[in-house]
Amino acid sequence: MTGENDPFVQLQQVTLTYGQGEKTVAALGETNLKIGKGDFVALVGPSGCGKSTILKLVTGLITASSGWVFVAGREVGAEPVRVGMAFQNPTMLPWLSIRDNVMLPLKIVPPFRQQFRAKRKTEFRDRADALLKQVGLAGFGDKFPWQLSGGMLQRASLCRALIHDPQLLMLDEPFGALDQFTREELWAIMQDLWMTRRPTVLLVTHDLKEAGYLANRVCVMRARPGRIVEDCHVDLPRPRTIEMTYEPGFVSLTQRLRELIVSARAPDAAKTEVPA
Amino acid sequence: MKAINRRRLQSAAVIIGFFLLWELICVVFHVKEIVLPRPSQILTTLWLQAPAIWPHTVQTLYTTLVGFGLGILTGVFLGVLIGSSRLAYDVGYPLLIGFSSIPKVAVVPIFVLWFGAGTVPAVLTAMIMSMFPIVVNVATGLATTEPELEDVMKALRATKLDILTNVGLPRAMPYFFASLKVSVTLAFVGTVIAETVASNRGIGNLMMIASSSFDVPLVFAGLLVLAVLGVGLYAIFSVIEGRVIGWAKRKDDFALG
Ligand SMILES: Nc1ncnc2c1ncn2[C@@H]1O[C@H](COP(=O)(O)OP(=O)(O)O)[C@@H](O)[C@H]1O
Ligand SMILES: [Mg+2]
């Protein structure tokens, strides 16, 4: 449990309320979370329970209403941490080629930013191409987004999230819109990328199999107000395979998660039948 | 390719047919020249009076393009301001709607009062008329950036300027170029209005003088020149639009207006 002593990400008694005056939404009740450096944590839970909100808090896109968010030992925003993000919607810029889309963070984030003009056609280009090759998009660098399928765009979007070697990788249902086969293929690619680069990953998903396959820890959340009700460790060896997801241990894990979420959805029923 | 050629042929046939019908009706019903001259008379007048019409044409074109150029500059500036700042949007947008609903012909006398009759009021009228579609389109283009993309950029600690140059402005380009072809036509309308009211040069002025001396064929010759200029400018900016933002045509999610 690397996360306990020297956490890379730490949420301490964080709450978040959207809006002001009468129309407030308590999106997050008091939440505590510690994530060790290089760990892979999945957040699961019914929609609207505050998963995306946690992601935004950790990246500093929104500020906690109360409590503290620490990243790399300092309050979020103070430390220049490199962050990569990918969403369900790949949001490629339609006027740029796939390669230029992938290189976008290098244009923005220091120290790459200062070297961008000089290395754009050499080192950075090779870097983008290598990454594209790793996700199975070799030779597609010069294509434009409208020439690629949804699954291919999502691969490119992962490349864009990783090109600047982020210490923190935020994935908000990145595989949610894909078919089962593409999804499983991307899980394997994602696992590879994580094992070679070791960023700290926070993955939001509603696919329990995905959470169990990819993550070291799965946090189950409950809505109104959102909070983490369970934190399960996934003790399966790496690299994991799709076959493993059919083994009894894995199946019982996903079943347990499922029960937790179902009971989280019906708060009254939960009181009587929360499993130990 | 064939379908396109056939469509072009059809529209050419419709236009030629229109003028032929016009000619025919005038001949059959003995319509007087002073009411509605025949197309052939208009063309003859245009040909004979060309040396007199030409300087006016140049003047009108010049005024329109200068006014349009200024309209682009101020329009883009205001559009970027309104589209990228919440405060500017809240303050600027109602003001903009208010301004744009004023009939522009009403401001010409004010310009004449300030700058005297002549080219300046015409340039300014062309400018303010062509400015509004540009402002609205650029602002819309900037304001419709996907929130998730903005999150990606903000997570990279991109500055406002980074987001504007890398995402906002390229994204607003299709909107901008779509507005240009509408705007250039409006600039043209502005010029002619101002020339009609308060200038001693330009096609608008030519038509005023011609109509006061009942030279109806000359009035229509002026109209024809305006139509040709207007269509020409519209066509030029349509072609530029197609060239510059070909990428946007591949996707359907750009509602151009
Ligand atoms: N910008 C916002 N303004 C107001 N309420 C919001 C906003 N974003 C999210 N919420 C509300 O906060 C709650 C949690 O949202 P979110 O974190 O997006 O949920 P999840 O990602 O788990 O589906 C929801 O009830 C949602 O309606
Ligand atoms: Mg969400």
UniProtKB/TrEMBL annotation, chain A:
Pfam family, one: ABC_tran
SUPFAM superfamilies in UniProt: P-loop containing nucleoside triphosphate hydrolases
InterPro entries reported in the protein's UniProt record: AAA+_ATPase (IPR003593), ABC_transporter-like_ATP-bd (IPR003439), ABC_transporter-like_CS (IPR017871), ABC_transporter_ATP-bind (IPR050166), P-loop_NTPase (IPR027417)
Span of domain ABC transporter: 9-248
Domain of life (superkingdom): Bacteria
Record's keyword terms, sorted: ATP-binding, Nucleotide-binding, Transport
Single Gene Ontology MF annotation: ATP binding
Keyword NAD carried by entry: no
PROSITE patterns on file: ABC_TRANSPORTER_1, ABC_TRANSPORTER_2
PANTHER family xref list: ALIPHATIC SULFONATES IMPORT ATP-BINDING PROTEIN SSUB, TAURINE IMPORT ATP-BINDING PROTEIN-RELATED
Family: Belongs to the ABC transporter superfamily.
Protein name per Swiss-Prot or TrEMBL: Nitrate ABC transporter ATP-binding protein
Species this chain originates from: Azorhizobium oxalatiphilum
TrEMBL record, chain B:
Pfam families to which the protein is assigned, alphabetical: BPD_transp_1
Subcellular localization, as worded in the UniProt entry: Cell membrane
Transmembrane segments: 12-31, 61-83, 95-116, 122-144, 175-198, 218-240
Assigned GO CC terms: plasma membrane
Entry keyword set: Cell membrane, Membrane, Transmembrane, Transmembrane helix, Transport
PANTHER family for this protein: ABC TRANSPORTER PERMEASE PROTEIN HI_0355-RELATED, ALKANE SULFONATE ABC TRANSPORTER-RELATED, MEMBRANE SUBUNIT
Name of this protein: ABC transporter permease
